[in-house]
Amino acid sequence: xxxxxxxxxxxxxxxxxxxxxxxxxxxxxxxxxxxxxxxxxxxxxxxxxxxxxxxxxxxxxxxxxxxxxxxxxxxxxxxxxxxxxxxxxxxxxxxxxxxxxxxxxxxxxxxxxxxxxxxxxxxxxxxxxxxxxxxxxxxxxxxxxxxxxxxxxxxxxxxxxxxxxxxxxxxxxxxxxxxxxxxxxxxxxxxxxxxxxxxxxxxxxxxxxxxxxxxxxxxxxxxxxxxxxxxxxxxxxxxxxxxxxxxxxxxxxxxxxxxxxxxxxxxxxxxxxxxxxxxxxxxxxxxxxxxxxxxxxxxxxxxxxxxxxxxxxxxxxxxxxxxxxxxxxxxxxxxxxxxxxxxxxxxxxxxxxxxxxxxxxxxxxxxxxxxxxxxxxxxxxxxxxxxxxxxxxxxxxxxxxxxxxxxxxxxxxxxxxxxxxxxxxxxxxxxxxxxxxxxxxxxxxxxxxxxxxxxxxxxxxxxxxxxxxxxxxxxxxxxxxxxxxxxxxxxxxxxxxxxxxxxxxxxxxxxxxxxxxxxxxxxxxxxxxxxxxxxxxxxxxxxxxxxxxxxxxxxxxxxxxxxxxxxxxxxxxxxxxxxxxxxxxxxxxxxxxxxxxxxxxxxxxxxxxxxxxxxxxxxxxxxxxxxxxxxxxxxxxxxxxxxxxxxxxxxxxxxxxxxxxxxxxxxxxxxxxxxxxxxxxxxxxxxxxxxxxxxxxxx
Amino acid sequence: xxxxxxxxxxxxxxxxxxxxxxxxxxxxxxxxxxxxxxxxxxxxxxxxxxxxxxxxxxxxxxxxxxxxxxxxxxxxx
Lengths: 699, 77
Ligand SMILES: Nc1nc2c(ncn2[C@@H]2O[C@H](COP(=O)(O)OP(=O)(O)OP(=O)(O)O)[C@@H](O)[C@H]2O)c(=O)[nH]1
Ligand SMILES: [Mg+2]
What we know:
The complex is a heterodimer of chains A (699) and B (77). With 699 residues, chain A is α/β, with parallel strands linked by helices. Among the domains of chain A are: 6-171, P-loop containing nucleotide triphosphate hydrolases (Rossmann fold, 3-Layer(aba) Sandwich); 279-423 and 442-475, no CATH class. Chain A contains 32 helices and eleven strands. The longest helix of chain A is centred in the C-terminal third of the chain and has 35 residues, at 496-530. The radius of gyration of chain A is 30 Å and the shape is elongated. The model of chain A has no long low-confidence stretch (mean pLDDT 85). Chain B is mainly β and 77 residues long. Chain B has two helices and six strands. Chain B has a six-stranded antiparallel beta sheet with strand order 1-6-2-3-4-5. In chain B, a hairpin with a 2-residue loop joins strand 4 (51-55) and strand 5 (58-62). The A-B interface holds A 64-65, 67, 69, 100, 102-103, 106, 231, 234-235, 237-238, 241-242, 245, 267-268, 271-272, 275-277, 280-281, 365, 368-370, 372-374, 382, 483-490 and B 21-22, 25-32, 34-35, 42-50, 52, 54, 56-63, 66. Bound molecules: guanosine-5'-triphosphate (GTP) and magnesium ion. Magnesium ion binds next to helix 1 of chain A.
């Protein structure tokens, strides 16, 4: 018979390796990184403990203590104070690591005070030898009244010991390891009198900060002679923290030894260079340059290769499947549409690789440090830069990454401006449009004009983000408490497995996510293009060939195809929005592409491929780029994708808020539809105006 | 010699003697900012702010306005 799984919660300071341990226990692949605040939500997985016992493991954001400052940290305390929570743990695993043990143990002593069965994990045991650290585990176990598992989640050692402790969690002591109420005995005695059924430390946590805690009526406290002012409460918290540190210091003095000949000052030396006033910037911009170089230059070889493969796949399909509209859809709509996304795998993989390296090495915190002062001018803080950098990959994780910004105003502004940064979904649109309208020449002998344009668009996105931050900062009037404390984690050589997994998983998610939308959209579009409410649509073949008998067969077929497209459902829809977008230099087909892009930007190319494939009768397969190039405006007779309309389209995509998933995540993070709707209408409205001006000036 | 953390020079070590409880967030205290603990200034960011400290073995960065609120006694070497 199987018993209920044991509920385990992983709790610990940021960056101690909770998620790495979670991945070890559950076999899942959650993202890890050497930057405090990588995990921002609850994640659940299951783990077999042997002896037919199972556990559900809960990964949580890191927190420095149970006194919380930011939203991600709040998750932890809300869970621990709410016995009715579905995830309320049977046993808490407090994750610490050898190098920062002293600080990590602070949280451990607090959790012990809650009288929940608690295991102590000391992670990163693989670092002990290198750093000359030795620990007396049995002595520690006695002093801390717990069981200790010394593990390395990277080298997968000690995991079985931990599993054994978890499966026998009922044997763990639930006694607190120090008596925190000594800091003010009278006060805590009084509390006990009023709430005889509540656990003392829990009460203290609720009183000393704003946490939701249903059953407790705080108003009773206010009428009591012994209740304390905020300042007094803070003083008590301070006393409590000092008391805990004293306790920890006393234990570590006898249980932890560091060999002074081995401990080096390497980290600080490295930081003297990497965060140096001048070299720091030089190195940072050098890294950015390297990232751009990889995206624009090194990626082109595999990209050309993929392009050719898809082109030959298309022609293979159209040769080997029975000719007809369905084959056209597959060969000229779907395959180029998918190809239009797959081709960006090299660029996107490079982007994820670099961001992952920045996070894993510990460099990201240094960027925060270097840029803080500059960012403050715009109502942001150095911490806002991390979402802006990771937003170049995708805005969704970037918006979620804002959770570790304590100041609500800074956080809101960062969320609102993040979609301006050039995310990877824009790369497909930009690249194809640039190839169509910007000549492939070099300026000053070495700068590629197309690459330069792309770089300009990245800069434009970033500048827009910063400027909007400045504007928002002066519009948004609410005040919120601001303080800036950020830990600088030790540098680590990035672990190839973490980085590799991260790159593969994220790239896969991008391609499959986009692939699914593109396939379903192209099927919908194809149906809408193949049917019509008008009778004339279905008799077009005969009527057009009869009235135009003087034309050649090819011309007649062209006429039929374009007549049918214009009178299909999609054509009618497109024509109805045409007046709105005509001043921007687009025809109705681009209009359909733009509308479809509000689901996700990267579907633009696939949408155009599908529409063009239906609208032509030609059997020969062109790449989507050639197909777009040959589109002629029916009225002006000029190419549809000319310099003016192309620039206008690029600017539209740079500024418009076209991504449903981002809007959904902003709704979730800000808890209201107000902010995502503001993003949608303000950004898209602004995009429209800029595109309009650009086209009218350039045409 | 007594001074505040924002006045430290690069590489200078000091012992924390007092700090303003009303303005120092609890988070910093939890990271090791308390009387008797050692701080060393590792680096100042461009334009002098924020500053990068080794506080009781934890490497962290805070802004100058906060550093002003922490009084220290410089250790002579
Ligand atoms: N040397 C070594 N490094 C480790 C070990 N476990 C984790 N790390 C590294 O420590 C860093 C932090 O790991 P994470 O698992 O993301 O830590 P976390 O506690 O989930 O961090 P947050 O989600 O930010 O709170 C990563 O760079 C890991 O590669 C270990 O056993 N040994
Ligand atoms: Mg994590």
